[in-house]
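User: Fold this; tokens only.

Assistant: Input:
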Amino acid sequence: MASISFHYFEWSCCYYYLLNLICFLLLLLRIFIQKIIVMHFSLQGRMEYSLLKDVTSESQHWTVRTRVVRFSEYVSNDDPPKILRLDLILLDEEVFIHS
């Protein structure tokens, strides 16, 4: 009877380690698949950006990528004040400032 319980103990330990190994491999597979998905969408899903010089009153659909270099807010004298106008100075990748 003691030998049967001993073999049962050995097999239960093997199953435990095997289960841990499978869980670890599944975790690695999940991380690997996530990295592949991120790489795929970062390489394939790049947006096409319009330059600011190409944005006109005739163009209707555009996407720009800019940096805001100056921001001004003009508010009314009411209580509470209302925003009347926002002024932005934008720079795209083609424009740069010399210092």
